[in-house]
Amino acid sequence: MALLEVDDLRTYFKTREGEVHAVDGVSFTLEERKTLGIVGESGCGKSVTVLSIMGLVQSPGRVVSGSVRFEGQELTTMKPRRLEDIRGDRIAMVFQDPMTSLNPTLTIGTQVTETLRRHRDLSRQQARTRAIELLQEVHIPNAAERLDDYPHRYSGGMRQRVMIAIAIACNPKLLIADEPTTALDVTVQAGILDLLEELRDEHDMAMIIITHNMGVVAETADDIAVMYAGQIVEQATALDLFDRPEHPYTEALLGALPKLEGDARHARLVTIPGRPPDLLIPPDACRFAPRCGYAGMDDCAIVPPELREIRPGHWVRSAHPTSERAAEALVTR
Amino acid sequence: MVQPLRDRRAGFEETLLRTAEESGWEAGTLRRASLYRDAIHRFTRNRAAIVAAIAFSIIFVYVWITPWLSSQDPYALDFSKAYLSPSWDHPFGTDQFGRDLFVRTALGGRVSIGIGFAATIAIMGVGILYGALSGFLGGWIDNALMRFLDALYGLPYLPFAIITLAIFGTVNFWTMVVALTIASWFTTARVMRGQIITLKENDYVRAAHAVGARWHRVLFRHLLPNTLGVIIIFVFLELPGVVLGEAFLSFIGLGINPPKASWGTLAQEGYGEYQAHPYMIIIPSLAIAWLILSAFFVADGLRDALDPQARKNF
Question: Looking at beta carbons, which residues of chain B come within 8 Å of A101?
């Protein structure tokens, strides 16, 4: 049994104009101690997917169907009270912006011990000792002294370390990091990623890393899921995905990475033309078709393609995966 | 083997942090620069606010010290001394029963300020709880609570207080507090609701939910402390209103029962004599004005001190 099984998850937001299909049939499984990277551009449903897993989607959003099974327990139908017991204890989350994710009116110590005292039967003193250990574990210098400081005395990178310390306080089995480095300086980003990897190995955690930066997941993740317009369009092991991207969108994303070597260094940056579809009325066809260079060769702009396993462990939702195009090219030649 | 670039960068970051720590300026002057310390600093720079704070303290001291120090009996009737104008023996003169008004004004001030503070605290308690719950729970509960509040808002101030006092039958310190609280907690509730609604969208609230914090912890531990600045300002804005409300009710005859007095009842007694003995109405009125004005300027100073962003807009 996998640690986390997400099956056909759908989360819709009710708005004045209609229902926005933010997450529209996402399925994946995550084994223990594995890392899944979820990649996609802004607004493709990455964050809503993990918030749905955590049961933190706020009104007017709602998980309308699908199931989330964590350690064999169904989370979507679980009583809020029991879900609270799991959150922070078995599943923990690190948010995008460390500058706003810590309460400015509470000391760092209070906020680190909050999780511990909520889920573990610790005395104030025990929790404090443990909090110091946790801060040391995320490499905050002078942890014991810094415990009574307020968040405004911490830099962005240190605050993110504190957020990570809070997340791992109860040894969760699953750590969800929602764009953990986006709001940080480039120099600090690498440190945070290293820390996450280090802690994942030490604490035997599984991890979901959300990002729109391919570089972030390239080294960290075992598997990568590429999301587009509320759906997973391609999922494979990190190596396979980077070596042999199948979906035209993934291909375009990788093509859009700036090249640092050769003549391409002086060329214009490659972009993907067009914009993602309006999720209010998702097109009843391939959602990438309007931006896809290969659409129109058949009926993929009319019939929505299914997610299919193009080779073992490599799933793709497109009528024109790269390898098939290559094969066709051979045949026609 | 060459060390990967990002490892070196991370190491560099930590070295920087450590150097800053070790150099000692972290531990020294900046150590206790908290929001409230900064606010106190800004407050002391504000001359109007400091003057107001001193004026506020003066009236406080006068009201509490005078009855202990004075040899005058504030309740003894002595008609031979009735209607004495202010003099060295009776700085504020005497009333129609020959009672010393310097002491009676101080005693009246105790009642007025006491009612003012008690009612303000009660108003804060009710208003904060109601508004915070309404804003935090949201949805139809919020809607229902706010529409109820709108209905109460529509009714004028006076009938509320009169009806409450009529229900109790007598007017003493505590019934007055209850009447004033019932008549004036609405605004606090509305302001609190607005504050909570703004604050609950913050990431740290979501983060608190994400570590499994229960709703009451999120509300009372994470949200309410963040409204403290607004609450402090509101206390000093609400206080003058309540004191004025009490004076007003006393003036129209719904005041605290004799022989006790508040500034309102003293002013009302003086009103009957204002042509022959104007000091009898002028002094309690001045006392009320003094308290209200100083509280307002303190509130103003506090607002500037606790919310430096807002001040830049002026």
Answer: 203-204, 206-207
Query: A–B: how many Cβ contacts below 8 A?
Result: 100
Q: Are B184 and B157 in contact (CB under 8 A)?
A: yes
Q: E-strand spans in chain A?
A: 4-14, 19-30, 35-39, 61-70, 73-74, 91-94, 174-178, 206-211, 223-228, 231-237, 308-311, 314-316
**The model's pTM:** 0.77
| Measured distance CA(A103)–CA(B200) in Å, rounded | 11
Tally the residues of chain A: 333
Q: Give the closest of B18, B34, B204 to A103, CB-based.
A: B204
Q: Cα separation of A303 and A318, whole Å?
A: 11
Pick the closest to residue B290 from B270, B308, B263 (CA basis). B263
CB of A220 closer than 8 Å to CB of A195: no
Token pair of A25, please?
Answer: 């049939």
β-bridge mates for residue A227, sequence order? A232
**With contacts defined as CB-CB under 8 Å, which chain B residues touch A84?**
212-214
Q: Where are the alpha helices (DSSP H) in chain B?
A: 5-23, 35-45, 47-69, 101-137, 139-154, 157-168, 173-184, 186-199, 203-210, 215-217, 228-249, 263-271, 279-306, 308-312
- Give the Cα separation of B131 and B188 in Å (integer): 7
The reply to whether residue A95 touches residue B10, judged by beta carbons under 8 angstroms, is no
Average pLDDT over residues B22-30: 45
Domains of chain B: 41-312 (1.10.3720.10)
How do beta strands A223-228 and A231-237 pair?
antiparallel
Q: Do residues A47 and A57 touch, judged by C-beta distance below 8 A? A: no
> Do residues B154 and B148 lie in contact, with contact meaning Cβ atoms separated by under 8 Å?
no
Residue A152 has pLDDT above 80, yes or no: yes
Q: What is the pLDDT of residue A288?
A: 86
Question: pLDDT by residue (tens digit) across B50-90?
Answer: 999 999 999 889 888 887 877 777 777 777 777 777 777 77
For the stretch B161-170, pLDDT in tens is: 888 888 888 8
List the one residue out of B86, B112, B84, B111 whose CA is nearest residue B97: B84
- A325: how many CB neighbours lie within 10 A of its CB? 16
CA distance B225 to chain A (A): 7
Q: Is A69 exposed, middle or buried, given 0-12, 13-18 or 19+ CB atoms closer than 10 A?
A: middle
Distance spanning both ends of chain A, measured CA to CA: 47
Task: List chain A residues with CB under 8 Å of B136.
Answer: none
Here the tokens at position B302 are 């506090």
Taking the C-alpha atoms of residue A209 and residue A191, their distance in angstroms, rounded to an integer, is 15
CB contact A119 to B (< 8 Å): yes
> Which value does ipTM take for this structure?
0.81
Residue ranges of domains in chain A, CATH in brackets: 1-78+206-333 (3.40.50.300)
What is the per-residue pLDDT across A1-18, written as a single tens digit (0 to 9) for each? 789 999 999 999 998 888
pLDDT of residue B24: 47
How far apart are the CA of A329 and the nearest CA of chain B, in angstroms? 41
Could you tell me if A72 lies within 8 Å of chain B, comparing CB atoms? no
